[in-house]
Amino acid sequence: MTPRTVAVDRLGDTVHPSPLKWNEADPEHPNVFVRDSEFIPLQITVDVEREREGNLLFEKAGPREQVFFDASKTRAAIVTCGGLCPGLNNVIRSLVLSLRCHYGVERVLGIRYGYHGLNPAHGFPPMELDVDDVSDIHEVGGTIIGTSRGPEDAGVMLDFLRTLGVQMLFTIGGDGTQRGAMKLHEEARRQGYPLAVVGVPKTVDNDIQYVTRTFGFGTAVDRARAIIDVAHTEARAVLNGVGLVRLMGRDSGFIAAGATLASGEVNYCLIPEQQFAMEGERGLLAVLQKRLARKRHAVIVVAEGAGQALMAKEGEERDASGNVKFADIGVYLKDHITAHFKGQGQTINVRYIDPSYAIRGLAANTEDAVLCDMLARNAAHAAMAGRSGVIVGYIHNRMVHVPMELATNGRKKVGLESALWKGVLAVTGQPASWK
Questions:
Q1: Does the annotation count 229 as an active-site position?
Q2: What is the reported pLDDT for 3?
Q3: pLDDT tens-digit series, residues 302-321
Q4: Which of 205, 207, 251, 368 is catalytic?
Q5: How far apart are CA 150 and CA 161, in angstroms?
């Protein structure tokens, strides 16, 4: 079956020579401009004995020799939305440097407090972002332009961007942010306004489709491992000690799984993708009891979205982004483990740690800092080339253009048959099934 090429929206013909200059006379450094005919396949494994079905070809990201916008007459804006994530300031800084220094874009604006800053009724005027303004922001966590949750009317946001004279908007956020960006892109197309809307995928949970690794994830796993090691030390120091660590991961358990593998000290890793039981012969309490009888200590890592079916809910409360507010699985486990062992007259010492806010406000580590720079620069290339309604994906160590509609029509999950999860089972020794 022939691979299907994924179509990407373009604002029009690229009629301006790129302001980027390469030393084409140097034979060691050939022309690095990307041709529009270059694509990256989603699946790269080839089985010569059978044909693979349903493969996708994504447009390769990177600088084009011809661009859509005249940079000297173009204004750009950057917005950060959703929760904090290590690397936000890195992306802002690299976008400003790429746009201002490499392309010569006239002005770059920082939209204050997420999409709320694109509704003038909220009274948050944008801030100018010049090279000096962002020179050292990568050294600290957070976002200098602020963030928020919740949507705004696409028509209102577009009118404000037109008033500001903005032709390129960079949306840094997760799937909710990119769905809002897609609506803005569609409204601009409907009104015939040439606005390039390009997303930089941001989620510490690493759950965006067609993105191998999102920025912030590496930093989160790195810090989570250190916290797990502390929990292990605490658990070993007392009789029947249980180090219980609740990590981020609403719908996907990548942080919990990654930190479990990195630490090597976790005995039970609980993620949203796998249901588990508390009671019964194969339930967590029975398995934990056997472990404590043998070793006198244990470490449990649980993703925030795991075990939600175990907890009674009265109605479905949602946050400003429309996400269901989850019950606290960490507190639930702590209370039930404590009650179970005390009910049997056994000593139990549960050390519960929830480092979520302490992690997401960190500065990016080295690996994430490099990824942030790559994502930001390729987002700038995409917008200058007139691509819109896309995010910059990351597949097989290559940057690609992924339509926002495709990237946001589901969540990337930990596969229970994947090498990642098989590795977790091997490291922890936990049951493959709780049934």
A1: no
A2: 79
A3: 999 999 999 976 556 666 65
A4: 205
A5: 18
